[in-house]
Each structure stands twice: as C-alpha cells, then as structure tokens.
Amino acid sequence: RPRFGVMRGREFLMKDAYSFDLDEAAARRAYNRMFVAYLRTFARMGLKAIPMRAETGPIGGDLSHEFIVLAETGESGVYCNKDVLDLPIPADDVDYEGDLSPIIKQWTSVYAATEDVHDAARFEAEVPADKRLHTRGIEVGQIFYFGTKYSDSMKALVAGPDGVDAPIHGGSYGVGVSRLAGAIIEACHDDVGIKWPGAVAPFRAASLNPKPGGAAVDGACEKLYRELTAKGVDVLYDDTDQRAGAKFAGADLIGIPWQILVGPKGLAEGKVEVKRRADGSRENMSPADVVARLSG
After folding, report:
1. Torsion angle, CA of 127/130/131/133, rounded to 10 degrees?
2. Residue 2 — very low, low, confident or very high, per pLDDT cuts 50/70/90?
3. Alpha carbon distance 67, 45 (integer Å)
4. Mean pLDDT across the chain, nearest whole number?
5. What is the pTM assigned to this prediction?
6. Contact, 34 vs 171, CB < 8 A?
7. Percent above pLDDT 70 for the chain
8. Which of 283, 294, 277 is nearest to 228 (CA)?
9. Measured between alpha carbons, how far is 177 from 85 in angstroms, rounded to an integer?
10. CA end-to-end span of the chain, whole Å?
11. Angle at which helices 215-230 and 287-295 cross, to 10°
12. SS (H, E, C) the chain
C-alpha cells in the first residue's frame, strides 16, 4: 500500500452541502444535524470517523470540525483522549428535528483536536497521561458554521418574521468522496488485502471456479451466478485460467465480503464452501442456502 497512493489520485471528488438560516440559533441546529448525520454516514461505511476541532481557514467562522479516520499513513496530525474512540454512534431512530445538543456535547466534551488548533496546556490538564493519543489521521469530511461572513459582504438579506431584513447565517459541509476509498482501505485491511465493509463493497460476493472447463462445476457456478443476480446480489465470477491458489489470493486482495468456492469434491456432496472475508470463517452449505444467506 504506497503512502497516499489511493487518496492522492488524479481526480478529487467533493460532496458539498450548504445551509442558510435566519439566525444563529437555527444555524447551529443545522450544524448539529449535519454533525450527527456525518457520524452515522461514516459509521455505515464501516469507518470510525472522529469529529475534531479544526481550523476554519479561509472559509472563516469560529466553529468547525474535521472528521478524521485514525491511520498512521494519514496526513493530519491529531491529538485526542482515547475515550473518544469508544463513544457510541447515534442510533437509527435519532430525531434530527429534536434536541441534538446532548449528542454534540458527548462528542465535543472529550478532547479531540487537529494539530492546527491543538492546545498543549489544555491537553495535558484535561487528559490523563494514559489516555493521551497523538497520532495521524485521514480527513474524510469537514463542516463549518461561518455565520454572516458572506451574507454581510454580499448583502444577502431576507425578511424575518418581524418583517425586518437581516443577513442569513450560513454553514457548509464537505465530504471527500474519492478520498473515502483510501480511508476505508486503511481502516479495513489485513496483511493479504482489503476487507471491504458490505455497505460500500463493489460486489457482495466473489464466485471462484478453481478448474474451469468441468461441466458440473461450470454449470453450478453459472447457476449460482444467475440465481444470486436475480435476487439483486452483485457477484464477481472468476472463471479465469489462473491457478486456484492465485484465485484465492486475488479474492483476498480485492476483499469482496463473501467468497464462494465451487469445487468438484464439495459439489459431489451437494456443497460449496463460503468464506467470510472479514474474519476468515468458512462454512460448507448447499447452493440454495448460499443464495438464501447472501440475498437475505
């Protein structure tokens, strides 16, 4: 894995969102909604992205958080209390229209900052020595509240409930979409390859035919491929002429969540072998059970 090889590609895709509100209180509620949404979005991708106080830079304003995936190959130096790594991700039923401040307080009351805004004195005073973490990380997103910085200069005014014109309060929210691939690889891998989380994997399963050309195995592989595809399961079917060992190594390297090995010996007993890439566990089951498992 060359340093920055995937993250520093030839193109950079950014997701940008903006919020516009009548006053600071409403704008901070919008900021809090995005803060929580980012926590949940990255978690669904299989990432533990830690929100850290960050420099606002030329965008301006006095409130910003970078969402950082800890990795020694990251570009950003970070300082945090290790307790932040164990904080719970907001649940599926979180009410975005309700009061999110308890969630925000839980995450922001534990020290976590990028090196640009790191306060060494505060870090040493607030964080016990055995919980101090200084490492590097990959920035996958950043959110900002910049108030009326732009609306003041652009005269972007709207009439409030009282009919009086007032400048809008703004926020911006970015995710480095193309950088996420590199961050996920750094967070989800072992010595032999990638372990794609199911939510972002390019395929759900890889079907491996160790000896193409045999009528029974070829037929079983193709039948499995058709049945899984019909159930909406994305399958990568490897029927190349490579040696079986090379196919197994390639499947581990690519990191598709499930591997299906269709071999002549197992097939004679009505079974195929299914391997879960995340933990290496293996199970023999019938092709019908494979379809049920992977399409469930």
Report:
1. 100
2. very low
3. 13
4. 92
5. 0.85
6. yes
7. 96
8. 294
9. 23
10. 34
11. 30
12. CCCCCCCCCCCCCEEEEEEEECCHHHHHHHHHHHHHHHHHHHHHCCCCEEEEECCCHHHCCCEEEEEEEECCCCCEEEEEEHHHHHCCCCCCCCCCCCCCHHHHHHHHCCCEEECCCCCHHHHHHHCCHHHEEEEEEEEEEEEEEEECHHHHHHCCEEECCCCCEEECEEEEEEEEHHHHHHHHHHHCEECCEECCCCCCCCCCEEEECCCCCCHHHHHHHHHHHHHHHHCCCCEEEECCCCCHHHHHHHHHHHCCCEEEECCHHHHHCCCEEEEECCCCCEEEECHHHHHHHHHC
Q: Which residue has the tokens 């991708």?
A: 45
Per-residue pLDDT, 7: 58
Tokens representing 78?
A: 């970070």
Tokens for 138, please give them.
């990959």
> Residue 30 in contact with residue 166, Cβ under 8 Å?
no
Report the distance separating Cα 279 and Cα 197, nearest Å. 12
- Looking at residue 56, its amino acid is T
What is the predicted pLDDT for the residue at 6?
A: 63
| Structure-model confidence comparison of residues 61 and 267, the more confident one | 267
pLDDT digits (tens, 9 = 90+) for 198-241: 999 999 999 999 888 889 999 999 999 999 999 999 999 998 98
- Mean predicted confidence (pLDDT) in 23-37: 96
Whether 88 has a pLDDT exceeding 50, the answer reads yes
Q: Is 165 exposed, middle or buried (0-12, 13-18, 19+ CB in 10 A)?
A: exposed
Residue among 206, 276, 210, 196 nearest 237 (CA): 206
> In this structure, what token pair is assigned to residue 236?
């990568």
Judge whether residue 142 has pLDDT over 50. Answer: yes
